[in-house]
Amino acid sequence: MIRKVGILGGTFDPVHNGHLALVKAAGDICNLDEILLLPAALPPHKQGIEISEFSQRAAMLTIAVKELKGVMVSTIEQLLPVPSFTIDTLQYLKLHSPTAVQFYFICGADTFLDILSWKSWNMILEECNFIVFPRTGMSNEKLKGFIGKLGFLKEKANSWKHPQSGKWVYHAELVPDDVSSSEVRKRLRKGKSVDALIPREVVHYIRTHSLYI
Questions:
Q1: The CATH number of the domain where 81 resides is what?
Q2: Are strands 153-156 and 159-161 parallel, antiparallel or unpaired?
Q3: Measured at the alpha carbon of residue 32, what is the angle toward residues 125 and 165, in degrees to the nearest 5?
Q4: Residue 151 CA: distances (Å) to CA of 105, 166, 175
Q5: Could you list the residue range(s) of the whole structural domain that residue 199 is in?
Q6: Which residues pair with 4 in a beta bridge?
Q7: Cα dihedral sign for 27, 32, 33, 34?
Q8: 96 in a domain, yes or no?
Q9: Could you tell me the sign of the dihedral formed by the alpha carbons of 44, 130, 136, 155, in that order?
Q10: How many domains does the chain have?
Q11: Per-residue pLDDT of the chain (213 residues; tens, 9 = 90+)
């Protein structure tokens, strides 16, 4: 039996409710068996930018998803070479999976539209399926046109399949709340409430460890 495993990577500095909404929606869209949240040790696009300790970001993620069935935090990127490239992570996960697995990479439309700048992007498209979420103010037609340029053929209303690799791109209908980790950090530094943006127990962890002040 092939396991269907969703992957949501990111800095998660800190995790917020928008991340959790993506996780829940992606699991339903593709009937995923499991979802891995992968905090990046050192994201390529954030080299030179100060980020919180890996252990703290992983701890906040673990707290945030502890009640979500089938959702787990993986800290493997701490073991892999930095910066953290998606292709390296995917190949490591596939090599060390105890069973046959199909990966479903979860991301926003803005991230997917930037995929040609990723290391070994063509190999990534051959390694996993994608679940892409729209962004507020971003044209869905631009995204759909881009999917077609990558060689995917439309199969259903919101899904495309590549004739050679057999991999899929699914376009989710849910538009996530317009919240970002940078906005959360900004509010915390100003002493403003973030209770509506991140889980309550994560707020407690942040205050206990004096983060983002």
A1: 3.40.50.620
A2: antiparallel
A3: 25
A4: 18, 11, 25
A5: 3-208
A6: 102
A7: negative
A8: yes
A9: positive
A10: 1
A11: 899 999 999 999 999 999 999 999 999 999 999 999 999 988 776 766 789 999 999 999 999 999 999 999 999 999 888 888 899 999 999 999 988 999 999 999 999 999 999 999 999 999 999 999 998 878 889 999 999 999 999 998 899 999 999 999 999 988 777 789 999 999 999 999 999 999 999 999 999 999 998
Q: Is position 97 within any domain?
A: yes
**Cut 0.90: pTM above it:** yes
Residue 107 lies in a domain: yes
CA distance 109 to 104: 15
Closest of 154, 185, 186, 158 to residue 170, by C-alpha: 158
Query: Residue 161's Cα: distance from chain center in Å?
Result: 21
- On whether residue 213 sits in a domain, the answer given is no
Per the DSSP assignment, residues forming a β-bridge with 169 are 130, 160
Q: How far apart are CA 55 and CA 170, in angstroms?
A: 32
